[in-house]
Structures are given as structure tokens and as C-alpha cells.
Design goal:
Belongs to the FUN14 family. It is a multi-pass membrane protein. It is found in: Mitochondrion outer membrane; Nucleus. By secondary structure, the protein is mainly alpha-helical. It is about 75% helix and about 0% strand. It is elongated and about 90 Å long. The mean pLDDT is about 80.
Length: about 150
């Protein structure tokens, strides 16, 4: 009887993934700039909706954080005033001055590490390729912060 042999092509995934950019590994082989896949109205809608959601969440989290920090300072002042805690203000002032000096020292160098520079360049390339989507996101973010 005739026995049919199946032949398979071997794919070396390690070699294949070395040649692919990270975003293609994460999203899909067909992922590129959004301008290649969607029209202008869709890009604006996607950017606007995601921006609005992000802005709205930032606004709510920001209010919560401000309330927590302000309430914490308020409770510390009450505890200090009533004598439950005692603050050594000279020590606080000395530590703040030391921190200022360290900040001045570190900001005088003002050089980015190569890793940070490559990530910044990557973000700039993404923003240039997806300028409509980015514009929609920025507008939506501002609207989300205002609502």
C-alpha cells in the first residue's frame, strides 16, 4: 500500500524573533503605524476616547492623592500642635538644604544615559508616525481632565 510521508518545515523561533522589533512581537506581525491601518476619523476617535479615559482617571486619582497628602499633613500638624509628636525643625531644614545641594549637583550634568536616549528616540518616532492618533489622545486627555 502507498504510505504518504508528511514533510514539515522547521521554523527556528529564536532566530525569527531576533529579527522582529519588540512591538511586532507584542501586537502582531501586521502592526505598524496607525496611519497604515485606519482612516483619519478612526484615528481621531480612538485617540480621543483613550485620551479622555486617561485624563478622567488621572483627574480622579490626582484628587484622591491630593486629599490623602493634604489630610496627612493636616493630621501631622494637629499631632505636633497637641504635643503627640515633636518635630526637630532644625534637622528638617538641614536635610532640605542637603537635598537642594544634591539636586543642583545632579542637574548640572544634565546628560541622558544611552538607554534613556534610545527610549526617548523610540517615543519620538512613534509620535511622528502616529501624529493624528497622538493629537486625538492629547485633546481627549485635556477634555478628560476638565470633566
Amino acid at each position: 500500500a502507498g504510505v504518504k510521508e508528511d514533510t514539515f518545515k522547521v521554523l527556528d523561533l529564536a532566530e525569527y524573533t531576533k529579527k522582529q522589533p519588540w512591538w511586532r512581537k507584542v501586537f502582531a506581525p501586521s502592526s505598524g503605524s496607525s496611519a497604515e491601518k485606519y482612516n483619519v476619523a478612526t484615528q481621531l476617535l480612538i485617540g480621543g476616547v483613550t485620551g479622555w479615559c486617561t485624563g478622567f482617571i488621572f483627574q480622579k486619582v490626582g484628587k484622591l492623592a491630593a486629599t490623602a497628602v493634604g489630610g496627612g499633613f493636616f493630621l501631622l500638624q494637629i499631632a505636633n500642635h497637641t504635643g503627640y509628636i515633636k518635630v526637630d525643625w532644625k534637622l528638617v531644614e538641614r536635610d532640605v538644604n542637603k537635598a537642594k545641594q544634591q539636586l543642583k549637583f545632579h542637574s548640572s550634568g544634565n546628560k541622558m544615559s544611552p538607554e534613556v536616549k534610545s527610549k526617548v528616540d523610540e517615543v519620538i518616532i512613534f509620535l511622528k508616525k502616529n501624529v493624528i492618533l497622538t493629537g486625538g489622545f492629547a485633546g481627549g486627555f485635556l477634555l478628560g481632565m476638565a470633566s
